[in-house]
Amino acid sequence: MKVSVIGTGAMGSIYASFFAKNGFDVLCFDVWKEHVDAINEKGLRVSGISGDHTEKKLRATSNFHELEDRDLYIIATKGDSVGSVASKLANFNLKKSIVLTIQNGLGAAERIKKFMPINNVLLGVAQGFGASIKSPGHAHHNGMSMIRIGEINGGLSERLETTVHAWEKAGFTSKGFNDIQQLIWEKFICNVAYSGPCSVFKKTIGEILNDTNMLDVSIQCGFEARKLGDMQKINFSFIDTEKYIIDFGKKMPLSKPSMLQDVEAKRKCELSSINGMVVTLGKEFNIKTPYNSVVSSIISAREKEYLN
Q1: How far is CA 200 from CA 78, 232, 259, 263, 298, in A?
Q2: Residue 131's pLDDT is what?
Q3: CB distance 1 to 166 below 8 Å
Q4: HEC per residue, the chain
Q5: Fold held by 2-178
Q6: Cα-flanking dihedrals φ and ψ of residue 66, to 5°?
Q7: Going by CATH, does the domain composed of 182-307 fall within 1.10.3720.10?
Q8: To 10 degrees, what angle do helices 275-285 and 290-307 make?
Q9: Longest CA pairwise span in the chain (Å)
Q10: What is the rounded average pLDDT of the residues 234-239?
Q11: pLDDT band at 102 (very low <50, low <70, confident <90, very high)
């Protein structure tokens, strides 16, 4: 199977390394030239909970046209870049290909739908991963639990089973789910609870958990997301949202959400897909979202300062 990982950042690097290490033909895409050059010259190093391994049986490129004619496309970019990727994939013949998009937050399917049919598109949720880029060509991860995959409109299918099997062969724990929207929303609540507050306070997840005031902001952000999910009749697997958020955080106390990593590196972050999405949906459903509105405003103001 020929696999392309589009967006070889922290998470994408882990995906690419494992697929290549386990015999897949892997071609990575990223716009970060130093990262691409380092991978091609020295290999892709992944350290952390899975050990410390440098994989050389893969290639990276910044030329999107080289990605044509692949069996599996894994979109691992930030949420606001998914539309741009879809606009380029739309130029390829994808009839025999599967596109799997794995992002934090909401809106990936809707962004893809603007540029191409979603007949061959699956949605994924990375559960229990905490990853960062240490330097060009080197990614580190603190956790690795499960890759959950599902059809956009629900149900199980042969292509879903094929995709899950590929991830398992690549060394991941993976499973196909009948209702992927439930899982996306459940992770979304935790993303909302930690991404924005960690970025505002510049703290790890564990530091948020250990401070009563910061934790209250985190929980309230999550509550606002839960209310919106209930409005959309998401079939949540839990009743106690506060416990769910805290239990999620306790599994990765040393982790810095990718949004905080972006803020610290003075990069554009995925605010619009996470805390900003709560504000957007709140306006759509006429529900007040004061905590996420303030958190989003603070992060947006900081972004403007360092991006301009």
Answers
A1: 19, 28, 10, 9, 7
A2: 84
A3: yes
A4: CEEEEECCCHHHHHHHHHHHHCCCEEEEECCCHHHHHHHHHHCEEEEECCEEEEECCCEEECCHHHHCCCCEEEECCCHHHHHHHHHHHCCCCCCCCEEEEECCCCCHHHHHHCCCCCCCEEEEEEECCEEEEEECCEEEEEECCEEEEEECCCCCCHHHHHHHHHHHHCCCCEEECCCHHHHHHHHHHHHHHHHHHHHHHCCCHHHHHCCHHHHHHHHHHHHHHHHHHHHCCCCCCCCCHHHHHHHHHHCCCCCCCHHHHHHHCCCCCCHHHCHHHHHHHHHHHCCCCHHHHHHHHHHHHHHHHHHC
A5: Rossmann fold (3.40.50)
A6: -70, -15
A7: no
A8: 130
A9: 53
A10: 96
A11: very high
Task: List, in sequence order, every residue forming a beta bridge with 132; answer none if it has no partner.
Answer: 140
- Domain ranges, ordered by start, for the chain: 2-178, 182-307
Query: pLDDT tier at 61 (50, 70, 90 boundaries)?
Result: very high
Sheet holding 98-102, edge to edge: 59-61, 25-29, 2-6, 72-75, 98-102, 121-127, 146-151, 174-176
Integer Cα distance of 205 and 112 in angstroms: 31
Assess whether pLDDT exceeds 80 at residue 129.
no
